[in-house]
């Protein structure tokens, strides 16, 4: 009994698992809403200065669930260059961590990458008491005084009301490296697109792709609610300068018939505004239960066929900028080991998704 009781104190036994205290040195606090910081991933930020993924008052009525999920900050990034020796973050969340199958670090945390585009390397994740809705966390300290490009990824499954960047008083701040151009890559989909269930924000597949393709990415995945509604097609068509639209919403279709109805209409609405923007239709990744359910496997094959058939018909009718990718191949060998619950990818699953999509995305953009 005594050993059982003691095992619960592992945080006291392993110094690497404790939450570090902010040291007493004075920090200068900055809002990333101010220059020279660059906020990526929020297509309507100028509208209300809110960390939100859809417009506050769109011309088209949003489904209530989508309207709520738009306040989750998946895909948001704070980008800047600094010679700071210390970097901390102060965050006010909309609510506390509450998911059983996704770590608080992915749901509510920020993580930090350092490096130029194409050479960004993970450095740290915000560590905090997951029961809290406000936290301060050290992301790095005692670094060499040298210019470095920093990318901070926003939480995937929580709203952020406020965030502040704390730098040592002598730190210099300048704009981040430029993107290759101003065109944005839009990803519309489900919880998988949103990032469920990455252990930290940088491991959601859209964020992995953003480190390999030097463009701004907008994560428009809505957990359980990527259903291909025409209202969403109209709203996405308002986003200026699209480089590519990825449609990854099979997982939330209630039926094959629903997909047959929504997919051609979604594409038609988007094409009215963007006749030449590349569109990539991505069929669903495999589920663990498919091995044991002929019915599920048959449904997945039918839905893949609907998406492939839609793309082929449009190409035959002259749309040379629409593409299909078979998502059932993305998780590769031992796909059943790549999810947390048979559906939502782990970091391994997301890395494999990104590995498969990187070459096709680069080819489309070229």
TrEMBL record:
Residues 28-173 form the SGNH hydrolase-type esterase N-terminal domain. Residues 184-362 form the SGNH hydrolase-type esterase domain. It holds the Pfam family Lipase_GDSL_3. SUPFAM superfamilies: SGNH hydrolase. InterPro entries: GxDLY, SGNH_hydro, SGNH_hydro_sf. This is Hydrolase.
